[in-house]
Each structure stands twice: as structure tokens, then as C-alpha cells.
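Review form for a predicted model. The reviewer records the input and the model, then writes brief findings.
Reviewer: anonymous (R2)
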Amino acid sequence: MFGRHSSPTPARVPVVQGEVAHGIDRMVRNVQTGHFERSLSGLTAVAALVTAAEIYFEHDKASFGNRLMWAPVLLGPVGAVAGVAGVASHRAAKTALPIASAAIVANGLQGTYLHARGISQKPGGWSNWRYNMEMGPPLLAPLLVTVVGGMGLLAAILRRER
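Model under review:
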């Protein structure tokens, strides 16, 4: 398909000399060259802030009835600062970003447990799961926080451009 001398190797993307890579080829090149690490660090920063703001409004509706409801709100800016630092500094991308991201992942998993417990404490508990899933704490929302932390962890293990 590519000819005798131009077969792709795992380390290269088959892009013809002078052509611009598009779509998945461009993404693979960005991962291989290290550009994607900085982009994912920045995306983690933005996602952490957006997620923290949404969590604030949702937990405010519940009047922050449990002190642990403040944890994801406070971890959002920490993740954002670590993400921005990861864009600017290779060292921060390999130290501060994975620490903040691991804390966000742990908090997301903790939140999933607490939301499941909240659903079980509603009248009827899990036997009335459909109603309590809609009217109780959103069970899947903390997993979205976990994804934000996972993006930061992924950014931290990717190689960085030289």
C-alpha cells in the first residue's frame, strides 16, 4: 500500500513530504512530537474550572449540607493552576499536575460513593431507583470530575516536545 520504502513504522506517521497532516494523522503526530501534552494540560485547566463552577451551583442548591461538598469546588482551581503550570513548565507537568489530578480523581470516586449513598437514603432507596436517580444526587456527575483528573494524569505521562 505504501510502497517498499515508505511503510509506516510505529514511530512515524505516513505523511507525504510537504503535505499537512489532517485528522487522526495530525493528532498522532502531535502525540508523537509532544505537542499534545501541553494541549491536554491546558484542556485540563479549563475543564477543572468549568466543572468546579457547575459543582458549586449544584452543591449550593443543596445548601452545602455536607462539608465534603466543598472539596470538588476547591480542587477545581487547584487543578486549573496545575494545568496552566503544566502548559508553561515541563517540571510542573510532571509533578504538580499529576498530584492535583490524582486528588481530583480520588475526590470524584469519593463523590460517586457519596452520591450513591445519598440515593440509598432517599425514601425507597435503591428499590425506587428510577425516581431517586432523577430526584436525588446525580450518581454519574462525580465520574465527570474523575474524567477531568484522568485527563491531567494522561497529560502528565505523555512525552513533551523538545
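Findings: Residues 45 and 107 are 17 Å apart (CA to CA).
Further findings: The chain has one domain: 23-157.
Recommendation: see findings above.
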